Amino acid sequence: MSTDLTTAVPRKRRRRRYSQLTSGDKRALGFMTGIPTVIHVAFVTVPALLTIFLSFTKWDGLHGISSVRFVGFRNYWEIFTVFEDTLSAAIFNNVILLVFLFFGPTLFGILLAYLLDKNIRGTRVYQSIYYFPVVLSLAVVGIIWKSVIFSPGQGLLNTVLGRTKAGHQIDWLGDSHKVFSFHIPFLDNAIGPSKNFLVILAAIAWRHAGYIMVLYLAGLKSFDPSLREAAMIDGANEWKTFRRVVFPTLKPINVIVVVITIIEALRTYDIIAALRAPLGMELISLEVTKNLLGEGGGNVGRGSAYGVVLLVLCIGFIIWYLVNNFREEQT
Amino acid sequence: MSSQARRSPSPSEVGFSTVSRRQLLLGAAGIAGAGGLLAACGSSSKKAGGTNSASTVAGAAAASKLKKGTGALSFGSNYSNDKPKAAVQAMVDAFPNKDVKIAINTTDHNTYQDNIVQYLQQPDDIISWFAGYRMRFFAAKGLVGDVSDVWSGLGDLTDAFKKASTGDDGKQYFVPLYYYPWGVHYRKSLFTEKGYTVPKTWDEFLALAEKMKTDKLTPLVAANDGKWPQMGMFDQLNMRTNGYDFHVSLMAGKEKWTDDRVANVFKSWEKLIPLQQEGVNGRKWEEGATALGNKEAGMYLIGTFLTSQFKDQAVIDDIDFFAFPEIDKKYAQDAVEAPIDGFMMAAKPKNVDAAKEFLGYIGTAAAQEAYLKIDPSSVAASSKANTANYSAIQKKSADFVAGAKQISQFLDRDTDPEFASKVMGDAIASFLSDPKTITATLKTVEEKKLTIFKK
Amino acid sequence: MSATVAGGQVVSEGVRERVATATGRRRPIRWSRVVLHTFLISTAIVMIMPIALAFYASLRPYAETSSRKGGLFTFPKKLSFANYSSAFKQGDMGRHLWVTFLIVVPALILTLLLASFVAFAVSRYSFRFNLVLLMLFTAGNLMPQQVIILPLFQIYSRIPLPSSISPNSGHLNNTIFGLVLIHIAFQIGFCTFVLSNYMKTIPKELGEAASVDGASVPKQFYRVILPICRPALAALATLEFTWIYNDFFWAVTLVSRGNLRPITSSIKNLSGQFLTDDNLVAAGSLMIALPTLIVYLILQKQFISGLTLGANKG
Predict the structure, then answer these.
(1) What pTM did the predictor assign?
(2) Chain B contact for A42 (CB, 8 A cutoff)
(3) Which of the pair, B204 or B10, is modelled with greater confidence?
(4) Within a domain: residue A299?
(5) Domain residues for B130?
(6) Cα angle vertex A283, ends A281, A285, to 5°?
(7) CB–CB contact C276 B290 (8 Å)
(8) How many structural domains comprise chain B?
(9) Residues 6+ apart with CB under 8 A from A203
C-alpha cells in the first residue's frame, strides 16, 4: 500500500481522528484509557493531593474521618521548631546522600559506561557483573552487607582491620558519632554526618553505579559515532571530545540520570528500614512512616507535613523532567 | 481520668501465696501515695493480696458463665526467641478445650512492638502485650476488647494484678501471664573465683567495676539495639537518685526534663560509660547475654528473662542477680522494676467466645506452669502456681518483687507511647553515643514532651 | 569532513588494532589497555565481593566462623547447605514465596495489559488530553512512595471488601489484592511511557490496513499491535518482575500481618529472628535474592533493553 514502511515516522503524527471512529470503537477506547486512569488517579494522584491537605490537619488516623481537625500551619511549625533536630538531621542526610550519589556512583557509572562503550574484550561480561547488584532489592543489599561486611565479629572490614575481638570491635552500623559537626545559626543542635550513615552509603553506591551505567550505555549506543570520530580526527583528545561533543548531545540521557539520582536519593527507605533505622540514619522518608500509625496513636498531620517536604523537594525536578521529555510531543 | 494510675501496682499487690502481713502493710503505704481514683477501681489496701479462698470460689462460679469456644482462634505472639516461642507453644498445647484450633502468628519481638498500632488495626484475636500505661492507652482508644467478664472467673490473680489490667474506665483489658524483675545479673562462680562481693551502694558498685577492669574483664554489659534495653538503666538510676514518686511524675509528663534532678541522673550514668562494652547502640541484648555467658563481662543490668537465652543448664544455675545499688539513702533500694507480660483481646475478635475462654485459661496456674516449665525465667502471675519447682532465680525474683516498696513497669510501658518511642529512645541512644550532648538533648526532649503530652 | 569511514566501520584506536592483526603484525601491548583492564577487573571484584562472601558464609556454620581468628577468611572445616534449610524453615519462606507469587504474577500481567491499553490509545489516536495523561502517569511513577503513603494507608483501611477477598481485615489493607492493586497503580506510569514510545514507532499503515479490513479497535490492538510489541513487553516484564518482587515499602506499610507479606519484606523479620547468626542471615538473604538473580541471568538482554527503552525515546 504505502511505500514508506521503512522510513522513520515523521514528527507530525498523522493520527486517526477521534470523530472518525465508530461508537463501538469509541467505547472500547474509553475503557482502555479509562480504567487504568481511574486506578492510577485513585491510588496515586488523589493520595498525593490528600497528603497536602492532611498536612494542615490534626488526626490520629485511628478514629473516623470526622475526627480530623483543621489546624493550619501548626504541623509545619512543629516540625520546623519542636522537632527541628529530627527534620534537620533527616534533610542533612538526604542532602549528603544526594551529593554523594552524584559525585560518586553516578559519575562512576558514567565513566564505566563510557569505558565499556568501546569494543574492548569482555565488555559483555563486565556489563553483566556491574549491573547485577541492581536487580537486588536495597533491603536485601543492606542485610547482606550487614552480615558479611559490617558484621562486628566476622565481617570483612573488622577482619581486615584486625578488630574482631569482643570489646575491640568497630560497630559500623550502630556508631552514630558525627564525623564532624557544625552549627547553623537557628538550630539548637549541631548537625553533621554520622559514621554509620557514611558507611551505608557504600552499599547504596554499590548498587547505584550499575544502574546509571546501563542508562548511560543506552544513550551512548544511540549516539552517532561519526560525530565522535569527526571530532577526534579534528585533533580533540578523548576528554575534550566527550565534554564538547558527546556529553551535550546526550542531553536527554543526562536529564534522566540527574532526575533518577535525585529521586533515588529522596526515595531511599528500604535499606535503612531493613537495618532497623539506627540512630544517625535519619531520612525524610522514614519520618513520614514513623507517623503513619505511630505508637502514640499516630499523627497523620505531622507525617503528612514531612511528606509535603519530600514532595516539594522533588516536584521541581519532576516538572523539569516532564517538560524536557514531552517538549517534542507538543510540536 | 487521665491522671489515674500512672503508677503501676505497688508491691503487696503483685503478690502471691507467700505474702506476709508485714508486706501487706508496706503495700498499703505504697498505695496511699496514689490518687483516690484507685479506690474506685474496686480494690483498696484492705483487700490487697489476701483472701484467696473467697475469691477462688466466686471465681469458679463465675468461670462457668463464659461460653465454651469452638473453631479457629488466631494468636498474635511476639515471643520470637527460641525458648519463649517453645514455651508459648507448650502453653497453647495444654489448653483443655480441644475444639478450639489455635493458630499462633509469631512476629519478631522488636518489629511487633514497633508496629503495634498498625497491627492493632487488624489484629489477631489474642494479642500479646504488657501491663501499664500503654495498655491503658490502647484501651482508651478502643483498640482492644473489654475482658471484664473473663476476670470475674480469675480468682487466682490478686487484686493488684487486676488493677494492673484495668483501663482508665474501670474495665479490664488485659490478662497477665508472668512478671519478672530487673536486676544486675552476674555469674556466681566468677564472683567467687575473683573474690568479688555484691555491692550495695553506688560507690561500692563503681569500685567493683574498677576492680573488674584491672582483672581484664569488661565490668558492664551494654546493649541497646532496638533503643529500649538501656531505658532500664535510666529507670534504675532515676528511681535511686530521685525516688519513685519523681520517676512516676516524670513519666506522666509532669516534671521538666531540664530539671537538675534529671541532669544528675545522666551525670551518674556518664560515670558508667567507660566501664561498659563499646558499641552499645549496635548490640542486641541477646548478644550481651553471650558476653556474660563466656565470662567476658562481669555484670549485666537486665530482666530475669536473660536466663532464657542460655541452653546450658549449668550456666543458668550459675546466674544470680542483685538489686541495683543505692545512690541516695533516702530512696535506698526500695523501688523495683518488674514488668508484667500478658495478653489482650482484639476489639472485634472473630471468635469472641474462644478468645475469652482462652484468656480465662491464661490467667490460671495451669497455663502459666505450662509456659514456665519450658522457659523458667519469670514468675507466674497466679497465686496458685506451683512454686515448688521454681529455680533459684525464680524464687529470688518472687521474693525480690514481694519485698519491694514500689514497683515500676519499664519506661516504655509507663509513659506515653509516642514519647517513649519517638523521643526517649533516640535521646538515650544519642546520649550513649555522645554524652557531651545531653544538655542540648534534654532541652529538645522537654520541648517535644510538651507537644506530645498536650494532646 | 575527513571522516575516514571505511565501509561504515568506526575509525578509532580499535581499527588500527584490527588493521594490524589483519596484516599479521602482532599487536603491541598497550599499557593504556592494561590499565583499563586492571581497573575494570578490580571494579568487577568489588562488585562481586559482597555476594561471593555472603555465599561463602552461608555454606559454613556460624559456630565455626565466629570462633576462629580471621572469621570468614579461614579454610572451611565443613561446607553444607544446612543454613539454607534452616533459614527456609525458620523464615517460613515457603509461605512467603507463595504469597509473592500471588502478588507478582497478577500485578505483572495486569500492569502490562492496562499500560498497553493506554499506550495504544494515546499513541495511535489523538485526544486532547493525551499529553496530560502521559504526564500524569510519568509524574506519578517518579514520585517517592512515601509522599502518598499516609492517605493511601487510610484509604486502604477504610475501603470495605467482602470477606472472601479480605478474610483478615474486611478492608483493602492486609490483602494480597490490595498489594496487587497498588503495584498496578504505581507501575502503570512507567510502562505506559515506555510502551507508548515503542508503539509510536509502529507504522500507521499497519493499523490502517487492519481497520480498512473492518477490524474494530480492540481487534486491532490484539491482533496487530500487541504482537509487534512483544520485545518491549518482554523487556518490561523482566523489569517489572524485578521491581514488584523487590518491593519492600508497600508490603511493609499496607500489610501488617506477617504471614501475608511477600518475601522481600520478610527480610526484616529474618534478621531480627536470627539474631547473631550472620551466616544464617546471609543464607536467607541470598535465597530471597535468588529469583531476581535467576531472572537476570537468563533474561539479561531483555532486562537491559527494558531500561534502555525507558531511557531512550524509542
Answers:
(1) 0.81
(2) no
(3) B204
(4) yes
(5) 49-179+341-389
(6) 140
(7) yes
(8) 2
(9) A141, A142, A145, A149, A271
